[in-house]
Amino acid sequence: MQPILRTLLASAACAGILSPAFAADASTGPIKNIVLVHGQFADASGWKPVYDILTQDGYNVSLVQPPETSLPDDVAATQRVLAQQNGPAILVGHSYGGAIITEAGNDAHVAGLVYIAAHMPDDGESTGFNKNKMPGLIKSIKTTADGFLYIDPAHFHADFAADLPAAQAEWMSHAQVMPAAIVNNTPITHAAWHTKPTWYMVAKQDHTISPDLERVYAARAHSHTVEVDGAHTIYISQAKAVAQMIEQAAQTAAQ
C-alpha cells in the first residue's frame, strides 16, 4: 500500500456520529435545497445541465461563485448562499469545490455532502499536499506573475475536458477562473465529512485529479460511491448521473 493510502485511509477511523445540529436539520422533512460549488479553471455556468434537471424535478438550486482568492474567502462565499436557504440543504462540490464544501459543510444548514471528481481533504491537509502525493496526469497548469493559476488553453481539452466537444472545451479554456495558488496550500481546519453523510462520484478518466486519489477520498470517508466514465468535467458530460446522485443524497439524508 502506498504511504499516502495509509495516511489518508487512517483518518477514516475518526468518522463519528452525526452532530446534533445536523440531526435537527435533517429531521425537518424531505430536503429540497441544493447548493452547487464549482472548482478551479471553471465557473458556475458549467452546472447548468445539472441545474436544469434538478429544478425540473422540483428542487431549489443555488449556485456559488467562489472568488478563489483564498480558501476562507471561498468558504465565506458558500456560507452566504447557505444562509439564504429556508431549510436543510445538500452541498455539492466539484474539483477544488470539494475542499470548499469540506470546510463550509460544517454549517448547520448542511445535511449532506456530494463530491463530484472532487478534493476531500482531512483536517490539516490541503489539496496541494494530496495532489503532490498522488498526482494526476495534467502537466499544463501555469502560474501568472502575481501567483494565480491557469491551464494552458492548448492543452485544456485533453487535460481537463476530454469528455466534452472540442468547441465547448475551447470556449471554456478562454473563460477560466484563475485561482490564487495559495488556495491549494491552505489546510482544512475541520472536515465536515467526519460528521455528515457523503456521496462521491469518481471520474475514471480524470487527468486533473488522479482517479486513485478520488477513490482514496471516497473510501476513507465511507462515502456512497459511484464510478463513471468521463474526464474531470463529468459534472457536465454526466449531468444526468450527477443529478441522480444529488437527488439520492437529498432523499437519503432526510431519513
From TrEMBL:
Residues 1-23 form the signal peptide. SUPFAM superfamilies: alpha/beta-Hydrolases (SSF53474). This is Alpha/beta hydrolase family protein. The keyword Transferase does not apply. Gene3D superfamilies: alpha/beta hydrolase (3.40.50.1820). Pfam families: Abhydrolase_6. It comes from Amantichitinum ursilacus. PANTHER family: AB HYDROLASE-1 DOMAIN-CONTAINING PROTEIN-RELATED (PTHR37017), ESTERASE_LIPASE_THIOESTERASE DOMAIN-CONTAINING PROTEIN (PTHR37017:SF11). Residues 34-244 form the AB hydrolase-1 domain.
